[in-house]
Each structure stands twice: as structure tokens, then as C-alpha cells.
Amino acid sequence: xxxxxxxxxxFLAKVKNFTKAAKLLFVTxxxxxxxxxxxxxxxxxxxxxxxxKSLTLTDAGLTLFASCEKIFxxxxxxxxxxxxxxxxxxxxxxxxxxxxFGTSILIKHIKAFLDTHPDILLDFFFSHHLETPLIQDExxxxxxxxxxxxxxxxxxxxxxxxxxxxxxxxxxxxxxxQSVEDLEQINxxxxxxxxxxxxxxxxxxxxxxxxxLKNVVxxxxxxxxxxxxxxxxxxxxxxxxxxxxELAQKVLIDPFPWIKPGADHFNIFIKKxxxxxxxxxxxxxxxTLLTPSEFGVD
Length: 298
Known about the structure:
- The longest helix has 25 residues, at 59-83.
- Helix 1 (3-15) crosses helix 4.
- The chain folds into three domains: 3-83, Orthogonal Bundle (Arc Repressor Mutant, subunit A), CATH 1.10.10; 91-159 and 265-295, Periplasmic binding protein-like II (D-Maltodextrin-Binding Protein, domain 2, 3-Layer(aba) Sandwich); 163-248, Periplasmic binding protein-like II (D-Maltodextrin-Binding Protein, domain 2, 3-Layer(aba) Sandwich), CATH 3.40.190.10.
- By secondary structure, it is of the alpha/beta class.
- The chain has 13 helices and eleven strands.
């Protein structure tokens, strides 16, 4: 089997799109098609199932892909090991995380790692959709509060994310908010219209009171929810680490401190082969040694 054909197959198997594979490989789409035909001819079996624009791996394709992962990740690791012998060589890590955690916590606490590893460059990818970039090797590892169950992933616990309801003191006084039932008459600031964002709060209150959240104002960014609560648009619900400063300054307060919403778990997700890379091992070790207070949680 030709190594170039295998590399083309590997990229196509990850993204399952000829056009995108061609862009990643810096070749034409026809070159990708030609390489795959050559490879399928050489192994004398189909590697992909094609149905319209849909592309999936056959059983033979899945077997070959598993082998390719080991081969090309080993080549990548060897390339990085050799880079240590080059003058002023830099090794790059691409890290993905959720938007608010990445911009408000991760960025603030990553410099110490870079200071102790001057040979490493970090690229950051902040998004609420991290699984596909991880699978397609657009990032080396991700930090996420969602669970990912795709095969071959290592899951490493980081911290428990606490949530809190927030409102301005003036808003609470004006609307005489004293109980959960008072939410029925005021605006609920949510990341979505269907209150999936509020589920950790909803599940923490009695079922007969859950219907009081009616007047939903959709704000699709956490910082927007925070600023909306500060300006008196309604009551918001956010990760506690995002409002520590506002709570300390009493710009915002928790109108329901007796309610303890459910918590989410933040984890590192990384492909098992990539965890063997020295650069990734070093970053994972650094992140797991950070204290809860550095992550903005109790």
C-alpha cells in the first residue's frame, strides 16, 4: 500500500467529505478520488460506502482506519521528538474549550505552562461544538462539560462546574422576589427558548413549581446574560465562575441562595494515541494540577 494513498484515505475517513479532505491535503478533489480508487484497487475491496453525498466506512475501511491512526500518530510523535534537536524549534498544541471557560479562565492560567515549556506554542479554539474538531484532529484535546462517548477517547476529570441564579439588587427589590413562585411574573434570561440551559435549576426545585419559568428572553451568550441581569432585564442563570467579581462587588446577587442547582463536570478529552505525545502529556498534567480556586470554583 502506498503511503500517500493511505494518508489520503486517513484524512478522508476522518472528515468524510472529498472537498474538505482535498483542502486539508492541499490537493484537488480529483486527486483525492484518484488516490482512494488506487488504494481500493490495491487492497481489492471497497473502503467506503457511498450513498448520495453520504460517505461511511466499510468494515474493511474501519479496520484500515484503526491501523492508520496508529501509523500517522506515531509519525507525528516522531516528528515532534526529532524537533527537539532543531535550533529554536517550536512544537504546537491546539486546544479546544467551551467559549466562556476558555476566554475567562483558561487564557488567564495558561501562561505559567508556556513559561515552563518555551518550546511549545498554543493555539486556542473556543466553541460550544467541540466533538467534531477533536475527531477530525483539528484540535489535539478539548476541555468540555459535555460527555463524549466516541471510541478511543481518554476522559480526564478536571473540576465540577457550579451554577447560580443572578439578578441585580435593584431588580430583586423592585419585583419583591422572595420565592421561586415570583419568577412567574418576571423575565427569565436563558441561552435558549426551551430552558434547557436552566435544567440544573429546574431539577433542583419541586415539580409543582417548575412551571413558573414562563417569560423567557433568549440571550445566546453567557456574557450577554450577565450584562442583561446587571441592567435589570431579568433573572439569569450562569456558571458561578463567570460572575465571581460581580458577586464580590454586589453588582449581582443570588436571589435563591437556598437552592442548590445540579453541577456539570468539566473533563479533558483526548485521543488515546495523542495522550502519548510528550507535549500533550505535559499540558494535561499541568491542567489537572490546577486548584479548584484557579478554575474559579469552590
